[in-house]
Specification:
2 domains; alpha/beta; 38% helix; 433 residues; binds 4'-deoxy-4'-aminopyridoxal-5'-phosphate; Aspartate Aminotransferase, domain 1
Length: 433
Amino acid sequence: RAVTPQGTDRLLDRHRAVLPDWLTLYYDRPLEITHGEGRHVWDADGNRYLDFFGGILTTMTAHALPEVTKAVSEQAGRIIHSSTLYLNRPMVELAERIATLSGIPDARVFFTTSGTEANDTALMLATTYRASNQILAMRNSYHGRSFSTVSVTGNRGWSPTSLSPLQTLYVHGGVRDRGPYAHLDDADFVQACVADLEDLLGHGRVPAALIAEPVQGVGGFTAPPDGLYAAFREVLDRHGILWISDEVQTGWGRTGDHFWGWQAHAASGPPDILTFAKGIGNGMSIGGVVARADIMNCLDSNSISTFGGSPVTMAAGLANLSYLLEHDLQGNARRVGGLLIERLRGIGAGVDAVRAVRGRGLMIGLELVRPGTDEASPERAAALLEAAREGGLLLGKGGGHNTSVVRIAPPLSLTVAEAEQGAAILEQALRAV
Ligand code: PMP
């Protein structure tokens, strides 16, 4: 394995001199990724890595997927961007497809450039629609780092500021296996969370919406029991509170069993508002909001920003969506993800420091603790990332404020052989730490 050459070291110095200190870089020797193909990326030293984090779930299908590259370059050759003031064919086509896929009746779609901006728009819609700046959010949640999304991010370790333009009430339920309800079975857990939600309402509190991730992503890939949001929905409906499902990580089939995360709670039907981003562009910056027309149209506005729905990103989204549907990548996530979870559980069972292996489809978390205790071990998670990198495998980190969960979310085209190869590297890395 080559040592990082001076070129990358110099780039790191220049990065540190000119970019904000809070722009986190992974690894003691940060990586400079120069290119990718399929499920692999290469650094400036020429080292190849199996990518189990997909650029924080943005490379959903595969790196350098020819279909997406072709669509992007053809569209860029015609026009990259004109304005939101003119008709935009790829935007209309992608909106039509997403409206149908969303399951939301009479759906309207608005495109943004990121998940943060999508949630920001969803919050503006809900608060305007209900004329209330109170929001319900889940403990340990992550919805972005803009001023409004930080205000509904329960995971304080990931918030740059504790100031808030919204009045937020945090609800239990996002984390299943830690906290005061950890000892309860599924049915009692759901009941306790519903009681907690009921307890927050009344007394002049009239929240506009509940915003929630079906599986908490940054929070460490933790999921409530299926049906929790259906149970919440009954309470929300009684109070006229909207449900915003943040599908930025769970959308497009990543969880294997479902195309959207909300479908694990299907009895409740679709949410009122759905937000998406990350993987739909296979790396191009697309975010968006889907909402019933009466909610979407409550704003009296022009577009919200200049770039949402830019033709090049829309072309990428269309090509990527077609590819993932035609190749049933959701089915692949279910099959290969299922095998990978089983394999990792087998590995984890023999290691004291592994508290849990959990997940769904290709969204798998491995929680690390100090051996023999229940205490989170961010040090071990960090060491595991370094050791895996040495072995040629890229992983992610997450969890509560202490980031002790290793996150695995490869492109959805992962093969069985690659899953096995990644698991073997991870097993060795675990032994090393
Ligand atoms: N919501 C969730 C659930 C996320 O995981 C993220 C990003 N990690 C966001 C919103 C924000 O998306 P973006 O980084 O594209 O702004």
